[in-house]
Amino acid sequence: MTAASSIEKAPPPLPTSLPAPGLRLSTLRITALAGDFVKRFGLAATGLILPLLLLALWQHAASQHWIAEQLLPPPALVWQSLVELWGSGDLRSHIAVSLSRIGWSFLIGGSVGLALGFAMGLSRQLKAYLFPTFEVVAQFPVVGWIPLLIIFFGIGEALKISAISIAIVVPIVINTYKGIANIPNALLDVARVYRFDLPQVIARVVVPAALPSLFNGLRQGVMQAWLSLVFVELLAASEGIGYLMVWGRQLLQLDLVVVGMIAVGAIGVLLDVSLRLVEARLQRWRKVAF
Fold first, then answer.
1. What is the rounded end-to-end Cα distance, in angstroms, of the chain?
2. Can you tell me the distance from the alpha carbon of 68 to that of 259, in angstroms, rounded to the nearest whole number?
3. pTM, 2 dp
4. What whole-number distance in Å separates Cα of residue 87 and Cα of residue 32?
5. Crossing angle, helix 142-153 and helix 157-181, to 10 degrees?
6. What CATH number was assigned to the domain covering residues 75-289?
7. Phi, psi of 256, deg, nearest 5
8. Contact at 8 Å (CB) between 108 and 157?
9. In this structure, which of 10, 44, 83, 260 has its CB flanked by the most CB atoms within 10 Å?
10. Mean pLDDT across the stretch 116-125?
């Protein structure tokens, strides 16, 4: 065999460098994260289309004077009023007062709602006593309670906090009761096998299983709280976001009314997002388990 033939039959040289497995995995991970980011950004951008269209229509209507400026202030005036109120501290003080009312109402209404929901969900006897009355009382809107609350509490802070608390109780009770009632019997059977007492059943079985429904009730309670807050502050208040809106209407400065509407919407969204983040953190174990 000649040297030339041996050279021709020699195997092809191996590649000098191959990508490391860790590098390939990191590249795939970065690609997946980038794709997820693009998808989320696309959904967020889609949600901004309608608000931007409404803002453009608002600006066009104001610039063309389709409606008097006293009835439809231009976006620039609303933004200027928002910046001035925030800079002077007036808007922050009104927001602080409203949040204080929401906090006390949520503490009272949420505690009562959770207690009633757990009682009716865990005890058939208590449900038989309480649920028919609650079902009737839940049909009354907050507006229907105002005359009775004025008789007992006057028109001070007690009226506002009690009215908002009543609005919070109903969705929390309903969602808490449904969350407990829908717990699979297999989980309760496991608790009986391990001979859990009532506190252990509530802490280890009922609360983790009913947590999504509990947070759904809390989010609905926040929404009802904000709706009721604006109403009671529009009715009788000397401070708060609702009062700011009434004051703007009385002065025919609807830019202040729009600023109040923006503040109510923005804070409501922030509270809802905060509850969602807390819920996701508390339910992280579900992803691990399933």
1. 66
2. 18
3. 0.73
4. 43
5. 130
6. 1.10.3720.10
7. -70, -35
8. no
9. 260
10. 89
